[in-house]
Amino acid sequence: MKKEILIVEDDDETIKHIVMHIESEFNVLFHFAKSVEMAIEKLAQKNNIALVIAKYIIDGNVGSSIYAYIKNKELNIPFILLTNKYPAKDPDMSGFMVSGKLNTYLKYPIKENLLLDSVSPVIKLKRPSIQEGYRRVSGVNVELFVMEEIPIFMLDHENNYIHVKNPEIEETQTDDFYFVTIKDYKNISSKINERLTKKIKCKTLPTSERIDYQFDSVKKIHNSLRDLGLTVEEIELGKAVYESSVGIIKKNKRMSGLLGNLIRYQNYTYELSMMTNYLAIAIAGHTKWSSNHSMKKLSISSIFQDISIQEDHLARITSLESRQYKELSKHDKDIVSGHPYESMKLIDEVDGIDDVSNNIRDIIISHHERPTGNGFPKGTTMENISGMSCIFIMAHEFSHRLLCDRLSIEVLQKIQVDFERDYSHGHFRIPYQAFIDSFHQRKN
Fold first, then answer.
1. How many CA atoms within 13 Å lie on the side-chain side of 308?
2. How far is the first Cα of the chain from the last one, in angstroms, to the nearest whole number?
């Protein structure tokens, strides 16, 4: 039986483009809705919907109400949200990426590889393999290629590709397919994307992204670390360990999606993970925790520390006594206070880290704890905080303060005073001295 997909989109060209990509790889049945009401009606009528792909703002209404309907009815249907900017403040989207393992969101115009990577875990069954060099196109969508005078082919009974001069354009979905070369397929897909991009710009949709954001973030952090006194060797080591950790995490498709969305949509959380990684590894290099094994633990922890929070303004809150926390709704307070537990749970989904997972859990659950016991979620005091967690806590707090305040002599002096007061004794004494050593290398 074919898996069924509901596409909720009001732009005809976008619909055709999505269908074109999916049907080139998978045998599925499509349903369509051009409004929130129609989508919910179809979900109520159809019992076999395996996946929903929905635009966030459709026909003037918010598409997240479709997701809310699925969640409230406990339908357990994976959901792909189409949007140019993740709606972080929409309460209906709370826990979207965390609660559903196959949920994700994609940016317009839809990229083929990201779409197929998101659909594949749901559909599972791919089409029978065909001769390399061709992609299949349905009779409904073959018109897109005919208009561009692209050569169209059919398979005969001996699996030979026969050129078709006048392919029959279908009005409804059938099991009959034509074929085009991969080169022609990509060219048409690129042209459609160009048109959709222009359409998006004409509508002046808001976006918080820059194509070169990731590169700029890395460059900015490297420059800041050099200014602070880290050596080129320490920065290169931090970079290598971070890239290795990302490679491990990306082997899991859901974790890869969470990481990708963090990079694209969560500027602070992404930069915090990188900065914490570099600093934790630099500090560890001056302690007994300088092995590759220990650095791997610190690096993976830096990526996972806030990965369960989808909103940067919530990830910035580091104290339950702060004004920012006290002004939150109960719902958001629960997200902030509980995120160390939620982030820790996600570690279980990563393969290949069984040998270090317990230490990583401990680091993640402790990253907001403080020596005097006024941290969260447990209120742990310094005698119950491990050495590696001490390193991570200092790296995290220092990174947070550097990202939230403009780097200046005054800011650094204030951090130095606070750190000496809070971290220079007890279980933090050795990690604190390593922290000092890391930043006393700069030549005046």
1. 21
2. 72
Confidence of residue 208 (pLDDT cuts 50, 70, 90): very low
Q: Is 276 helix (H, G, I), strand (E, B) or coil?
A: helix
Strands (DSSP E) found in 2-155 = 3-8, 28-33, 49-55, 57-58, 61-62, 79-82, 104-106, 134-138, 152-155
Numbered ranges of CATH 1.10.3210 in the chain: 213-438
Determine the pLDDT at residue 265.
58
Residue intervals in the chain for CATH 3.40.50.2300: 3-132+180-201
The letter for the amino acid at 54 is A
Token reading at 34: 């051009």
Q: What CATH number belongs to 3-132+180-201?
A: 3.40.50.2300
Q: What percent of the chain has pLDDT over 70?
A: 87
- Which of 111-125, 197-211, 237-251, 334-348 has the least mean pLDDT? 197-211
Domain 213-438 has CATH 1.10.3210: yes
Closest C-alpha among 220, 287, 276, 266 to residue 245: 276
Whole-model pTM? 0.58
